[in-house]
Amino acid sequence: MNDRIDAVTRFADNVLARGRDVDRDEPCPLFADGVNPRTGERLKWRFPDGREVVISNLACQQNFFRVLTGLSNLTGDSYYKDAAKAAIAYHFEHYQDPGGLMEWGSHRFIDLRTLESVGPGEKGGVHELKYSFPYYDLMYEVHPAATVKFLKGFWNAHVLNWRTLEISRHGKYGLEIGPLWSHDFQQQPPFFSARGLSFLSAGCDLIYAGIKLYQLAGDRGALRWGKRLAKQYVNAQHPQTGLGAYTFTRPERQAEPDSDDDTRSMYGDRAQRQLGPELGSVALEGRMLLSTEARTLYSHNALMQLYLAEEIGEDGRDFLAWIRDGLLAYQKYAYIPETNRLRPMLTDGTDLSNYVLRRNGYFGQRGRVLRQFPADGQFLLSYARGFTTTGETDLWRVVRSIASANGLGDLGVAPGESISANMETASDDAYDLFALLEIHRHTGKKVYLKLARAIGANIVAHRFHHGFFISKGSAYARIDAIEPYALLALEAATGNAHGLVPRFLNGSGYVDGDYLTRDGTVVTIHSDDLFSGPIDRGLAETYT
Question: What are phi and psi of 17, to 5 degrees?
């Protein structure tokens, strides 16, 4: 067994042994989201009232379930995939509400100690998925009817107005399934006023769910509405630049705020409040392209839609065109090849590099400077898959430039031509590895696979500690880590068996809400902060 597959197997075995239920004589099959490799302590959330719970969030484990499936496919041992299926089946049996929703996502999860559904109280127990991209294929294999029920319930809970296709990132539990696809629809102009926040981070999960419902169960109504929702973001692109929209609605102003520090959407569009006095009417939330919005548009959403386009063939041609055009527009206006950096922008082309915020607000405190940010492996992967899927040669120039700047050498004037790859690269970035596998899959050129192996060796050497994959500076290992996923994909590619490992979509679930630190301060955090902060000084020894 080689070092790559050995590391992934050891990781999976350790999570199965140390990351599951240890509180019952007859354990349930659920997993903790994180484990301290040295102590075995499982990742906890501390609510403002001091209550501590062990986080078990199925929406934050979907990469892991793909790893377990791929590992079984490559080794022939069903043990790993069966563990993923058992966790899914348990959720369907115990944590699916009558309307189809699951107890998971950004604001709901299971306390692995008590097996109760819990969540940050200030969010009111709402359902939310943001670029989680659940492994619906495996869910459907476990329980087709329950999966279809969820997919329909997801749309039912998050579409507030079907006629206008007003959506919300937050959905209510306990709703009965309505008419769904039989609703009438009337196209609205971009940025129409609405109470629901149409963040693409949430919208892309709805799009994904709709298209997967069509793919798995043949529901053409879901296909029609899934593509219709995707088109709303395309409609809201800036007409001159083609730069993408993070929202297609505008928050309805319902009251006057007492302070700039209150950034709730009930007070209207947060970008207009904070930047509008200087930048004018173009400053809308949907037209902001800072790092978060750019990664959502051109990494998470792009990879997802390119994947769907391949999966559904002719029915996905629109996705190919939309993502190709979006990537081309983004490289034209945002990418700086000389520095390999990306401009923070408004989608009309306004460059916000080094812009200083004049007042407090949603995008930061007064005095914050908006900086350019690196074109890292996430963007390399998006442009690589964009090129291999669409064949658009202009995208290759960005692939070549990002790869060179990130220490991978020259990937070629064209794929496979005049290559000078850096086999001594220091990269241990799983995104770089995934990008090279995309190119190898498209070209068949072994040099790209050889470079991917060099990155794989670095991942094992630098990120595999005490039987877990863990990031620099972290105390806890994330079971949903993408490093073992990349190594499995590399193993499959080495054996010319790409299909044995599910395609990578860059899903990344998290918990969001109020958290009590040990000094008594309540802070709003993502669960990501618990892995890499840590929030509490001395929470645990970290890796350096």
Answer: -85, -35
